[in-house]
């Protein structure tokens, strides 16, 4: 049976926690799609195209992982991709409550889609894209929280913003 999983998120930026979940999922499923959500309501630091490119660079060496940008409803995107499993990372109880609501809604919208919650490895449990951006914005060291190419992209973007303002 060919089981296809989608790991959706804004990935603004992609963190080591995200990468850890994708790498582990790639050993559990025949195909893993990293679904990079447009999500303009979050006012992302990077454009959708930039976030897709950063994720593709990270996962280029994993044969059964692909990266696709999308907008609109996740349940519809999963249907279009013929995915059976929706992967979600859960760091804490607060994450679980929110993710449980999303899983229930997605099941109503796409009854063939099952949600699977994964916890990041212990060294990544506290990392969030929001915290990484805040640390980098104030010239802190984010090298242990994100892949090297993402760190470069973050520093470059914050320097561009500083030069503009």
UniProtKB/TrEMBL annotation:
Keywords (A to Z) from UniProt: ATP-binding, Coenzyme A biosynthesis, Cytoplasm, Magnesium, Nucleotide-binding, Nucleotidyltransferase, Transferase
Residues annotated to bind substrate: 10, 42, 74, 88
GO CC terms in record: cytoplasm
InterPro entries, per the entry: Cyt_trans-like (IPR004821), PPAT (IPR001980), Rossmann-like_a/b/a_fold (IPR014729)
Purpose: Reversibly transfers an adenylyl group from ATP to 4'-phosphopantetheine, yielding dephospho-CoA (dPCoA) and pyrophosphate.
One GO process term, biological-process aspect: coenzyme A biosynthetic process
Main subcellular localisation: cytoplasm
Name of this chain's protein: Phosphopantetheine adenylyltransferase
Signal peptide: none
Subunit structure: Homohexamer.
Record-annotated site: Transition state stabilizer: 18
Cofactor: Mg(2+)
EC number of the protein: 2.7.7.3
Protein family according to the UniProt entry: Belongs to the bacterial CoaD family.
Pathway: Cofactor biosynthesis; coenzyme A biosynthesis; CoA from (R)-pantothenate: step 4/5
Cytidyltransferase-like domain: residues covered: 6-134
Catalytic activity as recorded in UniProt: (R)-4'-phosphopantetheine + ATP + H(+) = 3'-dephospho-CoA + diphosphate
Residues the record lists as binding ATP: 10-11, 18, 89-91, 99, 124-130
């Amino acid at each position: 049976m060919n089981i296809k999983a989608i790991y959706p998120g804004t990935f603004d930026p992609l963190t080591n926690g995200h990468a850890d979940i994708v790498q582990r999922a790639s050993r559990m499923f025949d195909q893993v799609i990293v679904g990079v959500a447009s999500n303009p309501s979050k006012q992302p630091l990077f454009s959708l195209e930039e976030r897709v490119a950063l994720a593709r660079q990270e996962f280029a060496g994993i044969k059964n992982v692909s990266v696709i940008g999308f907008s609109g409803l996740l349940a519809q995107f999963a249907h279009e991709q013929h995915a059976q499993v929706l992967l979600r990372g859960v760091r804490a109880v607060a994450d679980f409550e929110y993710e449980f609501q999303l899983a229930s809604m997605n099941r109503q919208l796409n009854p063939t889609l099952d949600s699977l919650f994964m916890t990041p490895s212990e060294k990544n449990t506290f990392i969030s894209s929001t915290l990484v951006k805040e640390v980098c914005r104030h010239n802190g060291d984010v090298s242990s929280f994100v892949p090297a190419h993402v760190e470069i992209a973050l520093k470059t973007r914050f320097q561009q913003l500083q030069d503009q303002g």
